[in-house]
Design goal:
- This protein is of the alpha/beta class.
- It is about 55% helix and about 10% strand.
- The chain has a 5-stranded mixed beta sheet with strand order 1-3-2-4-5, with helices on both faces.
- Helix 9 (about 220-235) packs across helix 11 and helix 12 (about 270-285) packs antiparallel against helix 13 (about 290-305).
- Mean pLDDT is about 80; it is low at about 1-35 and about 145-150.
- This is Thioredoxin.
- Belongs to the thioredoxin family.
- Pfam families: Thioredoxin, TPR_19, TPR_20.
């Protein structure tokens, strides 16, 4: 096909949370879609199947490839959960081997990946072949229902609320309590590690991450914290942000200064400013540094997590730039 590889500069860097590679070819994982709740889409029909349809009800987009083993595990579970949900959400499947451009524009670098759309915009998502119970919880959340494991979910929600209110000590205590009872809860491990990292205790954060159970090291929450730590280490070598601001004041087209400033801003927790600076580069000169600003923005999305508010906001802005 004639589509240019949308993962600029990454070659064949499609990955899965379990394995990489395999044979291209084969059919879509999972069959037996119920009625019109589940369908395949293409680049040409994506707008109608997803953007427009999501204005009527939530639509989940399952990005997969024939060679992806975890995709073959996830998609049948997705179809089962969608059918059981009785029409609260729809499922649209997109083969990224045949239709790579949409996945690339949305920043999908790892499969399987599921992105939820509402009112024409991406609002939530996850990556990896997660368990059936988590799929049901995700669908219920997107579809507006409650459910799942109440006590654990409520505790994690309480920790999230405490952090949002600035009460990090309470959040840390909640995460500690969760881990005492359920030590394999990756969201609690990730949350506690992030709190320690934000407090400047990198060694403590590393020690908490070392407790991740075998087989869960690539969980999205854990990967996000590790990506944040890696980005911070990279940004610490860049220098004083005032220098980059001065260069931009003298020359607003100094994309390297804007890029470096975004990296420092992200390390300082100024996510929106970091995203806006990278988006400004994409808008001004998409080809700069081999599409480097967009590539860096996608790395930030991974670090922040697919459901993070700034990720969702910046992803919508990026989509508007790329699809307008």
């Amino acid at each position: 096909m004639s589509d240019q590889n949308p993962f600029g500069g990454m070659g064949n860097a499609y990955t899965t949370t379990v394995q990489y590679g395999g044979q291209n070819g084969g059919s879509a994982p999972g069959n037996g879609a119920a009625g019109n709740l589940i369908k395949d889409t293409t680049t040409a029909t994506f707008t109608a199947d997803v953007i427009q349809e999501s204005r009527n009800q939530p639509v989940l987009v399952d990005f997969w490839a024939p060679w992806c083993g975890p995709c073959k595990q996830l998609t049948p579970l997705l179809e089962k959960a969608i059918t059981a949900a009785g029409g609260t959400v729809k499922l649209v499947k997109m083969n990224i081997d045949e239709h790579p451009s949409i996945a690339g524009q949305l920043g999908i670098q790892s499969i399987p990946a599921v992105i939820a759309f509402k009112n024409g915009q991406p609002v939530d998502g996850f990556m990896g072949a997660i368990p059936e119970s988590q799929i049901r919880e995700f669908i219920e959340r997107v579809g507006g229902k409650g459910g799942g494991q109440p006590q654990l979910a409520e505790a994690l929600a309480a920790a999230t609320e405490a952090r949002a209110a600035g009460d990090v000590q309470t959040a840390a205590d909640i995460y500690q309590s969760i881990l005492e009872q359920a030590p394999d809860t990756v969201d609690a491990i990730a949350g506690l590690a992030e709190i320690l990292f934000d407090a400047g205790d990198t060694a403590g954060a590393e020690a908490v991450l070392a407790q991740v159970p075998e087989g869960k090291g690539e969980a999205p929450a854990i990967s996000a914290v590790r990506a944040r730590m890696a980005l911070a280490a990279q940004a610490s070598e860049l220098g004083n942000p005032a220098e980059f601001e001065k260069r931009l004041a003298e020359n607003p087209k100094d994309h390297q200064a804007r890029f470096d400033l975004a990296m420092v801003q992200n390390a300082m927790g100024e996510r929106e400013k970091a995203a806006d600076n990278l988006l400004a580069i994409v808008k001004a000169d998409r080809a700069w540094n081999d599409d480097g600003a967009r590539a860096q923005l996608l790395q930030l999305f991974e670090a922040w997590g697919p459901a993070d508010e700034v990720t969702l906001s910046a992803r919508r802005k990026l989509s508007s730039l790329l699809f307008s």
